[in-house]
Amino acid sequence: MNEIRSNLTDRLEQIEGQLLAMAEEVAVRIGEVTSALVEGDVHAADELIRADDDMDLASLQVEENCIDTIVRQAPVAGDLRFVLSSLHLNSEIERSGDLTTNIAKAIGRLQGARLDERVRDLIVQMSVQAQLLFRRAAESLAARDDELAASIDELDDVLDDLHVRYIQTVMQDARRGTLEPQQSLQLALVGRFYERIGDHAENIGERVRYIVTGWLPEAQAAERARERHKADPSADEPLRNRGIAVIESLGENRRIDAIRRDFVANVSHELKTPIAAMSLLAETLAGEDNPADRDRLAAMLHKESKRAEAIIDDLLELSRLDEPEGRFAEVDIDQVVARSIDASQSFAEANRIELATVGVPSSITISGDRRQLVRAITNLLDNAVRYSDADSRVTLTVDDLDDAVEISVRDTGIGIPRPDLERVFERFYRVDRARSRETGGTGLGLAIVRHVVENHGGRVLVDSKSGSGSMFSMRIPKEHKES
Ligand code: ADP
């Protein structure tokens, strides 16, 4: 009995130690990423992105430790509350770590923007405040201090105020034209990241209060709503955790707004380049008498218009994918593969690349949308060709996984560096802008692939190493269950 007891105590101490170390790590990283930001030090930012893996690992260890403790030690009452809360604390800390990584990623995208004194000053102040909040949260956990935990709410108001001032300043700079629209957008996002770190610290405070006194505001609010409903059934049916749902949906709306704004700015930017080039070329063409030069200019004009057309075509495809079409029918995978190979063949030949298939005919049928699937596979094949050297081979493999089919496209091309792997599915994200442009990429191909696979209830996986090729796999259930 004693043995277990002391084991459990050890375990709880260990979990707490891990959490405190993670929280301190986040506080330190907030400081580091801020220095990198104000100094525009992209190299330091890249290092921080890489170090994010350690954070993920630490978080995984806490999670395993908590689950193992629940299973093996069967804690009860206050101890159980502590272990369960630790799982939450862990994810709050990890998400804050992710936010600092997001700031590090934004530094690369800011491309050396010159931040004015006021913006820099506010960034530093937000950083100091975010670190303070995090250290306060850790302190309140270490001391099990309810009041210290509650004080985080007030401190967070300071960060919120700073954030408002910061956004106003960034907007003023954007209006004055001292910042490019893209850069102001990135800076606005950076401000949001600091603000959200504060929100996570606040949540940590709430969890600590729950550990200390069992005080959890959302649970209490839900309880009160249930009581009200019991007393007066005509009152609105209380939704479970409605408060949280509302807050989450507000957060989600803000997130979607930010994505939308980012997207619109990106689209405008992407289309502006070919259109500006077309206008310039047309002007030059009008004043050109030499027939050879006229032909050359006309060919360039044609290439630029094709580029704009490809971007618009992909954008239309993406918006079509958003609409629930309900055009699912039985689809023959062999036919889909044959059509995709057909569609990519001439592009492959032009680049002296052989397209090979493995596992076909497969005689697999799934429920899906044939046009969408052909489009997705063609995109993967085109990319494999686009990012490979001449005289190499691209292999498409079909695997039968009983209740799913896996279609993989493997190349031996340039590969994708690890830090970029998770981002290549984002719209307009490219590892090498110049190569993508040169080879007719739009930056939307993989976004379409992911969308198609998600529409089919499946997953897309990528395995790649810089310099030694990539493999993209679409794993799609044979029977699609409508969500
Ligand atoms: P793009 O039109 O630029 O190819 P995608 O959305 O299809 O846009 O891909 C995004 C980025 O992912 C590409 O710009 C490229 O940097 C990288 N990428 C995609 N597929 C491959 C591949 N097979 N090998 C290497 N890099 C790839």
Description:
α1 runs parallel beside α3 (77-110), α1 runs antiparallel to α4 (117-143) and α5 (146-176) runs antiparallel to α6. This protein is an alpha+beta fold. The strands form two sheets. The chain has a five-stranded mixed β-sheet with strand order 2-4-5-7-6, covered by helices on one side. It has three domains: 2-226, Phosphate transport system protein phou homolog 2, domain 2 (Methane Monooxygenase Hydroxylase, Chain G, domain 1), CATH 1.20.58.220; 257-322, Helix Hairpins (Orthogonal Bundle); 329-477, Histidine kinase-like ATPase, C-terminal domain (Heat Shock Protein 90), CATH 3.30.565. Helix content is 71%, strand content 9%. It binds adenosine-5'-diphosphate (ADP). Adenosine-5'-diphosphate binds at residues 383-384, 386-387, 411, 413-416, 424, 429-432, 436, 441-447, 470.
